[in-house]
Amino acid sequence: xxxxxxxxxxxxxxxxxxxxxxxxxxxxxxxxxxxxxxxxxxxxxxxxxxxxxxxxxxxxxxxxxxxxxxxxxxxxxxxxxxxxxxxxxxxxxxxxxxxxxxxxxxxxxxxxxxxxxxxxxxxxxxxxxxxxxxxxxxxxxxxxxxxxxxxxxxxxxxxxxxxxxxxxxxxxxxxxxxxxxxxxxxxxxxxxxxxxxxxxxxxxxxxxxxxxxxxxxxxxxxxxxxxxxxxxxxxx
Length: 236
What we know:
With 236 residues, the protein is an alpha+beta fold. It is 27% helix and 31% strand.
């Protein structure tokens, strides 16, 4: 399952890069981008536990600031290559056979279909940081494997307000959940609402992803099982 999750995550990184006009390359052991990727997205993702340092370093731009590598299996040591670990997290897996979580009342989860809806979602995700919100470009709405999910409530002034959300990336055998957020910080409710929507929209599909800290705890509280450790390395 870890290999499936790593591949799914690399496919999502590739989709984000394509939305920015950047083409990544899938190799046997790693996905790499020779151009700097959007903020928060790695320049390489290992796809095999047998991946070596050169499988990721040979295909990326190490000269420009911000170069990073996602070591999906936690086996690389890039410290001698000028990198340091900035994130330690765990893969998660939720079998499709588990009971569907109960969606919180008052919040409706549905796919984002319009550029205005995506802009509202991105602003909520970024917490008002316009520069970060800008990484979610309209091109994502036309990517057949990517679905942006918004949890909305009725706004006092009319219409609906985005209060939670996530990105779902579809692979052949798994659904990847990433970028999950809750404006009020209640990640337990966000995970419950997201997973209920996923079960409704893609019945019978297991969920994978990676999380750390409070979001990992919240995901586990909704039936996600913690897996192997992964690391993100940043060029120092």
